[in-house]
Amino acid sequence: MVALYVRLSLAPLITFGEHHISVFKSWSVTRGSFWPLLGAYLLAFFAYLVMGAQFNSWRYPLYLLLPVPFAIVGALWMIFALHAGLDVYGILGMILLIGLSAKNAIIYLDFVVARLGKMPFVDALIDSARLRFRPIVMTTVTVLVISFPLIFSHGQGSEFGQRLGKVMLGGILFSAILTFFVVPAAFYLFERKRADRCENEYRRLSEIEEATQAASRGDSDT
User: Which of 58, 109, 167, 215 could connect to 75 by a Cys-Cys bridge, CB 3.0–4.6 Å?
Assistant: First the structure.
C-alpha cells in the first residue's frame, strides 16, 4: 500500500524581534489527506475560472487578488501588536480574509470595467472609487462589528474566538484601506494601453452612430 508522505519543517516561520509565530512545527500529508487538499486547489481554480468568465478576461482576476497579501500582512501585524498567537483558528481567519479582501476589489473593479471606453481611463478609475467607496466602507464596518464580540468575549473557549477576531480585524481593515490605492494603481499601470484602444474604438463607433443618425434625419426631412 503506497502512501504519500510529505514533511516540511516550518517552525519558526515568522519572527518579529524576540517574538516568534510558529504556524506548524511539521506538516504531514498522507494518502487520506491528499485528496481534500487536491479538492481545495481544484475549487480555487474553479473560482478563478468563474471570475475570469464574469469579467470576460483572464487578467482581471489577478487584480482581484492584489489585496489578499495586504490582508495577511494586516492580520500578522495585529497578532504582533496584541501579542496573540497564531493557531488553527487564526489560519481559518486568514482563509476567510481571502474572500473578504477580494470582495472589495470585485465591487470596485466591476464598476471600472463597466465604464471602460465610455469615459477617459483615469476618470473611470476615480469615478468608480467615488461611487463604490460607500458600499466598501459599509461591508468593511460590518465585518469589523462582527469581529469585536469575538475579541472581547470572555468565557470557556473564548480564546479561540479572540484569535479569529483579531486576525479578521487587522486583515480586513488593512486591505480595505489599500484597496483604493493598490488596485487602481496596478490596473492603470498594466491596462492603460488597452483602455486607450478601447476608448478610441468606442469614440469611433459613437461618431459612426452620430453620422448615421444625422444622415437618417436628413433623409426624413427631404
Answer: 167
Contact 119, 148 (CB under 8 A): no
Cβ density class 7-34: b for 16+ within 10 Å, e for less: eeeeeeeeeeeeeebebeeeeeeeeeee
75 φψ region: left (φ > 0), alpha (ψ -120 to 50), beta (else)? alpha
Decide if 60 contacts 113 (C-beta within 8 A). Answer: yes
SS3 213: helix
Dist. CA 78–CA 12, nearest whole Å:
18
Dihedral angle of Cα 205, 208, 214, 216, to the nearest 10 degrees:
-100
Indicate the class that CATH gives domain 10-211.
mainly alpha
Neighbour count for residue 136 (Cβ, 10 Å) = 18
Q: Which grid coordinates belong to 208? A: 459612426
Q: CA 207, CA 1: separation in Å to the nearest integer?
A: 71
Extents of the domains making up the chain: 10-211
pLDDT by residue, tens only, the chain of 222 residues: 334 333 444 444 444 445 444 444 444 444 555 666 677 778 778 877 887 777 777 888 888 888 888 888 888 888 888 887 777 888 888 888 888 888 888 888 888 888 877 778 888 888 888 888 888 889 889 888 888 888 888 877 777 788 888 888 889 888 888 888 888 888 888 887 777 666 666 666 666 766 677 667 665 655
HSE-up of 198 (CA within 13 Å, CB side)?
16
